[in-house]
Amino acid sequence: MTSVVSPEWVLKVEQLGKIFGSLSENGLALTGPDIGSSKDPVTGAIVAAWDVSFEVAAGEALGVVGESGSGKSTVMRCIAGDQSSSAGSVQIRTSPNEQIDVLSLTPSERRQLRIDKIAVVYQDPAEGLDLNVTAGGNIASPLTAAGWRNFSSIRSRASELLLRTEVPLNRMDDVVKSFSGGMKQRVQLAKALANRPPIVLLDEPTTGLDASVAAGVLDLIRGLLEEFGLAAVVVSHDFSVIEMLTNRCIVMNHGRVVESALTDQLLEDPHHPYSQKLVSAARA
Amino acid sequence: MSHSTNAFDQVVLDVRNLRKQFVLHTIDSRIVEALNGVSLKVSAGEHVALAGTSGAGKSSLLKSIYRTYKPTSGEVFLKLDDDSFVDLISLTDSELATLRGTQIGYVSQFLRAQPRRSTFEIVTKAGIQRGMNSDTAKQAAAYSLQRLNLDEALWDVSASMLSGGEKQRVNLAAGTISPPRLLLLDEPVSALDPVNRESALELIGTLTDQGVAVLAVFHDIDAMERLASRVIVLRNGVVDYEGSPKETLERLEGVAR
Predict the structure, then answer these.
(1) What pLDDT does A94 receive?
(2) How many helices (H) and strands (E) does chain B have?
(3) What residues 134-173 of chain A have any CB closer than 8 A to a CB of chain B?
(4) What is the DSSP track for B72-111?
(5) Other residues' Cβ atoms within 10 Å of the Cβ of residue B54
(6) Do B25 and A2 touch (CB under 8 A)?
(7) DSSP state of A167
(8) Which residues contact A101 (CB under 8 A, 6 or more apart)?
(9) What is the pTM of this model?
């Protein structure tokens, strides 16, 4: 080993911004953490996220923390393509000679990206799954989208994934709406990993689950991130989730990044007033 | 990792004028000074013990070097495998995260391992993170846990179910498996009974023979006397005085009496 090597990014977000409505001339200066609002007082436009930048390498998980309305999920949705963005760039690099400028893609190219490059796990299983379809059918959909045609190989890949995410195989042909919350999240994970994407975005993946169920899902996620060397972005307001899954984080407040730090440093030595408030509230 | 004998007098850690202040925004932006300009060096194969009263800055210094605390100013140079030095303070978060896994170990008083993961897995993973292959890491983990007398019945038990002293031994085993270039120890044996403490101290003693640079905080003078090649006494966030264990500890005990 020679000098310190910075790990190569797989996902790079630069100055990403999302504004709802039209901003007044000084709209950016009139919003943000220092002002304590993300609403432009002149036009009423909302600066949901602005000037958000970070990089994530393979095998690394970045946490995005902040309270509800801070812009965490907006950032994730802009990366995933669930939402259009107003500014900035999102690049993904899955091999040395393949770099994709995500925001310049056409809608159909972006959908393609979601099949085998960027997977998303949502807090609400209804967003990531078709609840009226069976577990096996949900997993088959990204596989067929990726060109799988042989029924028995799709079945066997689906069982492999369900096995890995600890969903009993005898539930494979049951519709997902009959599943418990924790099990739905496991099916979402199985579906997300179907085509071995290099990047996974997790939006509050355990929020709303019972503590014991959440613990099991978290353990599973942690194992999957390690096993597949995924580049992950974990959006959560829950510091125990962040502490368990990530080693670096950014803190968002009123649409802006107020601090980026190593996770242990954020928890023990937060710098920004908002981070200090957030950490002390979580640790009290 | 092999070290030539002359490598042992080589500086591994070079801390220069390190300052750390906390600005407590939640309490009227009060400023708390933890370190007021600490400078010290630790060489390969050297065990330096930090002494001083509570609040002198011992733990703050270890955390600032590891960057769990983000230093306010100063430099922390660490020697790398190619003999170049890097200032840990100036690294990006992801560069530092990489170095932590391979070059710098930190064993605190408390186990900070992931919950619901078995004892054996925690120690094995630490070895793999430092570049051991899976089989070697398993063997080394078993050796290390045996050496610290951790009952084999507890190896497949989740670490969160262990007692304080058992956790501390798991922590120590993980921190010392395939020892890193620099090891920071913060009261690593504080919860151990005399017998287990003995084997833990013995294990820590062997690290210096392997060329590890150790910077440690122990609350008991006996451990410092046995392990340290040098003692640095901190007071109010600066180095007060330093010297051989014998002279510094006599002076410390004199103050205590």
Answers:
(1) 85
(2) 8, 10
(3) none
(4) SEEEEEEE-TTS-EEEGGGS-HHHHHHHHHHTEEEE-SS-
(5) 7
(6) no
(7) -
(8) A89, A90, A91
(9) 0.90
Tell me how far the alpha carbon of residue A141 is from its chain's centroid. 20
Biggest CA-to-CA distance, chain B: 54
Among the partner residues B68, B91, B94, nearest to A265 by beta-carbon distance:
B68
Nearest to B114 among A6, A222, A272 (CB): A222
Count the neighbouring beta carbons within 10 Å of the beta carbon of residue B240.
15
Q: pLDDT for A154-173, tens place per residue?
A: 999 999 999 999 999 999 99
Tell me which residue of B33, B248, B21 sits closest to A269, measured CA to CA: B21
Q: How far, in Å, CA of A161 to CA of A9, rounded?
A: 27
* B58 membership: H or E segment, kind and range: helix B58-66
d(CA A15, nearest CA chain B) in Å: 18
Measured between beta carbons, which residues in chain B are less than 8 angstroms from residue A60?
A: 94, 97
**B58-81 per-position pLDDT tens digit:** 999 999 999 999 999 999 999 998
Measured distance CA(A120)–CA(A122) in Å, rounded: 6
